[in-house]
Amino acid sequence: MIKRKQWGFTLIEVMLVVAMVALLAAAVITSISGQREKARRTAALKTVNSILPYLTDCYMRNKGVVDWDNNTSGGNKNGDPFCEGTTKNIAWPNLSQTGCSYLTYDGAGGSLTIDCDDDSNADITCKAGSTGTCE
């Protein structure tokens, strides 16, 4: 009888390779699944931090803050200045590119809340004051 050399892979070998690839894919997908939300929140945080000094200035001077335009997720209503009683023409930053939107501004407490998902809960809270911070 003549022995023939067989070339190729057995079914078991192919199934093992497929199983290993599936495990690696599952590990990668699990590790990156929350990164998109984190990136959106970080982008909004960076954007809002740009107006924090002006927000703090308005709060410290006991001046009101003009509402943002809800149609654009930013900008000022009627083109008014950001801080009431000033001539600085600073507008609320537009958050639409981050997927976030402004929720509330509490003038008495000097806090601004922002929502970055669909649950209408504050995902970012900024506190105006001597050490204005957003978290």
Topology:
Blueprint: H1 11-32, H2 35-49, H3 52-60, E1 68-69, E2 74-76, E3 101-106, E4 111-115, E5 124-127, E6 133-134
Antiparallel strand pairs: 1-2, 3-4, 4-5, 5-6
Number of strands: 6
Note the main sheet: 4 strands, antiparallel
Radius of gyration: 26 Å
Uncertain regions: pLDDT < 50 for 5+ in a row? none
Mean of residue pLDDT? Answer: 77
Structural shape: rod-shaped
**Number of discrete helical segments:** 3
Helix content: 25-40%
Largest sheet strand order: 3-4-5-6
The percentage of residues in β strands lies in 15-25%
State the end-to-end distance. Answer: 78 Å
Question: H/E order of the elements?
Answer: HHHEEEEEE
Number of domains: 1
Structural class: alpha+beta
